[in-house]
Specification:
Largest sheet: 5 strands, mixed
Low-confidence stretches: none
Number of helices: 15
Number of domains: 3
Mean pLDDT: 90
Helix content: 40-55%
Distance between the termini: 33 Å
CATH architecture of the largest domain: 3-Layer(aba) Sandwich
């Protein structure tokens, strides 16, 4: 009995995952749809090793009534309340927040606030921090006390704009971002992106994108990474706020309508085949080339190395048309040094990988190679 699993919508595609938190969940969702996953956390979320700054900020919030409280993330808000509970301040903090105007950035922060028995007065549909700032700046702020829950990175510009209007801003630093303990996987992921060995890269936070781009620390490498993300390698982000560093770099990222991991994977499962799936009617039946996998007449997928997949894709663009060795070198070996002997060797490996269907790749003496077209 054939134990080969059926092809999924992402079979044949290699997807990079840069997330640290919930990485296992995202990886499982991708693999369930057939993707090969390359994991390389761009950052790690580190609870403050010394809670002094968070505790000091919490106690400052309790010294006088707050006018506004800004919750930016669900995990950060819950972490703050949990820490306050450990110090015996939970009840007082909840009361101070209950008498203030509470603003939330997005549904996750809103859910966390409501779970704590509070209700938000404003939450932008766009989930943009900028909209929270605009809302606040439209109100008198002189002498107002504002608690600003941070997550990962300081909201320096946000706080500065409020202080310019006379507000007392209390940053509440719940977590901070730190580089991964081992930077080698991220560096390899960056290099794989530059070589177009990935079909997509996923991002779940804007700081992760910044860290990913920073890992391309050589001008030539950075240029190749940006070029790849604009063309062959699909960047997929959990939402438009996450995608902002790519947008600023002139790269269009794909985002689901709802900022959820499942929605992001579904977006990927639709977009990648739309860009990269090719069906060709050949003498042996229907050949489907999907990423680095090939299926003939619905048979089990055959996984090909990236070079052989690129070679087959070039031949499949116009079945029956003869491609010379120099043309195949240009199409499948783009950016690398190789000679015509490399084409001959790669064709032999491709035929071997295709097994009984290897005869589809035909040699045309003194001219080159072609993919057998249906008669």
């Amino acid at each position: 009995m054939d134990s080969t699993p059926p092809a999924g919508p992402l079979t044949g595609y290699t997807v990079g995952v840069t997330a640290a938190r919930r990485r296992e969940e995202l990886t499982a969702l991708l693999r369930r749809r057939g993707a090969r996953v390359v994991e390389a956390p761009a950052l790690r979320i580190v609870p403050l090793a010394d809670d002094t700054a968070l505790r000091r900020a919490t106690e400052r919030c309790l010294t006088a009534p707050l006018d506004y409280v800004v919750a930016t993330t669900g995990v950060g808000w819950r972490g703050w309340l949990s820490a306050a509970d450990g110090w015996g301040h939970a009840a007082r903090l909840a009361e101070v927040c209950r008498t203030a105007v509470v603003l939330t950035r997005g549904p996750k922060a809103t859910g966390a606030v409501r779970a704590g028995g509070l209700s938000e007065s404003f939450s932008p549909a766009s989930e943009a921090t900028d909209e929270l700032l605009i809302w606040l700046l439209a109100r008198p702020l002189d002498g107002r006390r504002i608690a600003l829950q941070e997550h990962g990175e300081p909201l320096t510009a946000f706080a500065a704009a409020l202080r310019e209007r006379g507000a007392e801003v209390i940053p509440v630093p719940v977590y901070r971002w730190a580089p991964p303990e081992d930077s080698a996987p991220l560096r390899r992921l960056v290099e794989q992106t530059a070589r177009r060995e990935l079909h997509a890269v996923t991002f779940t936070s804007a700081p992760a994108i910044s860290a990913f781009l920073a890992a391309a620390d050589e001008p030539g490498l950075r240029a190749e990474v940006l070029a790849a993300l604009r063309t062959e390698v699909l960047p997929v982000c959990v939402g438009p706020i996450c995608a902002r560093p790519l947008t600023e770099a002139g790269i269009t990222a794909h985002c689901p309508e709802r900022g959820r991991l499942g929605s992001m994977v579904r977006e990927l499962a639709v977009e990648l085949p739309a860009r990269n799936r090719r069906e060709v009617r050949t003498g042996s039946g229907l050949l489907t080339l999907q990423g680095n996998a090939v299926l003939v007449d619905g048979g089990p997928p055959v996984q090909l190395p990236p070079l052989l997949a690129a070679l087959l894709r070039a031949l499949a663009e116009q079945p029956g048309r003869v491609l010379s060795r120099p043309e195949l070198l240009r199409r499948a070996w783009a950016g690398t040094q190789a000679d015509e002997h490399a084409v001959e060797a790669a064709v032999a490996r491709l035929r071997s990988a295709l097994g009984a269907h290897g005869r589809l790749v035909r040699t045309v003496p003194k001219r080159g190679y072609s993919l057998a077209a249906a008669g």
